[in-house]
């Protein structure tokens, strides 16, 4: 008796399985016509009828969301634009055939030939329309299982929170629902707990940190919600917005280095203040007009504009004091300010006084101090104001900048 090698036995088995029904993939056009005639004519298939023999039993619709790209997240309009396709699968009890009779496992049919769920985007931004189109097809298996993959550019509403701009994170929901069929007619299910990201193309502005899926069959209509947690990539805004604003804050401090009698001091103050106003306008134009949350960056700009306004007022006062007559007496509060600002200078001046013998009943230090008080001019007052405000502005700038940047990044 001749022995058959094991490899030959395996090849024979595989060949038999592939070529024998219901695994045969080779069928003629006439066989396809006969099958479609059997399904749609002989069985009088009605695509308007929900595909359940027992209309009390709900149709189970399996759904998954395959995200391809985030086209745009419009902060002004609060609109998320995505490109994606849905994978919908359900069983049609009226589209079942015997593979031993027709030798065909699957058919590809136009979507309008069969019943399909009225599955729509619930939180759409503009128009309301059905999924798919006349050129879409469904794949029908011999056991009545249908697979439908409508591709679409979805525009959905997304509430924007710009509190931490440009280090903000956004949570956007894309909701789909059965529009006309109630939960007792069609229920939703899924084998996945998140958005499918296998074909996703990375966005240059937004990074997807996580996704989730939630199916709710408790209401009158089944709803599935896909959640995208997005984090902004702040590089562009840090280079073109945050850094110039911080630099302008330093220029705000340098106002008090310019001498009060210099004609450029006032124009310098105005220029810096206008610079902050321009950047505040830029930030406002990039973000939605939302009263619920104000960006910390806008608050920081408002602080800097306020400080610039104070610097402008102080510079105007300095200019007025600078042009006072030397014969006009310097008031005591201004003298105290000069002493506080230049205490080391006061001590030096006092120590350099002429060591004369004090008059009976007069203290030597009191006489020197009175003589120094008389020597204080309005120019000294202006310089003291510059000195004190310079250090106050450095302190306020450092505290406000460190606080705002820490809040934004955390």
UniProtKB/TrEMBL annotation:
The chain crosses the membrane at residues 241-259, 266-283, 303-321, 387-408. InterPro entries: Neur_chan_lig-bd (IPR006202), Neur_chan_lig-bd_sf (IPR036734), Neur_channel (IPR006201), Neuro-gated_channel_TM_sf (IPR036719), Neuro_actylchol_rec (IPR038050), Neurotrans-gated_channel_TM (IPR006029), Neurotransmitter_ion_chnl_CS (IPR018000). Residues 34-234 form the Neurotransmitter-gated ion-channel ligand-binding domain. Residues 1-26 form the signal peptide. Coiled coil: none annotated. It is a multi-pass membrane protein. The keyword Transport applies. It is found in: Membrane. GO terms for cellular component: membrane. One of its GO terms (molecular function) is transmembrane signaling receptor activity. Gene3D superfamilies: Neurotransmitter-gated ion-channel ligand-binding domain, Neurotransmitter-gated ion-channel transmembrane domain. The keyword Cell membrane does not apply. Keywords: Ion channel, Ion transport, Membrane, Receptor, Signal, Transmembrane, Transmembrane helix, Transport. Pfam families: Neur_chan_LBD (PF02931), Neur_chan_memb (PF02932). Residues 242-332 form the Neurotransmitter-gated ion-channel transmembrane domain. Belongs to the ligand-gated ion channel (TC 1.A.9) family. This is Neuronal acetylcholine receptor subunit alpha-6.
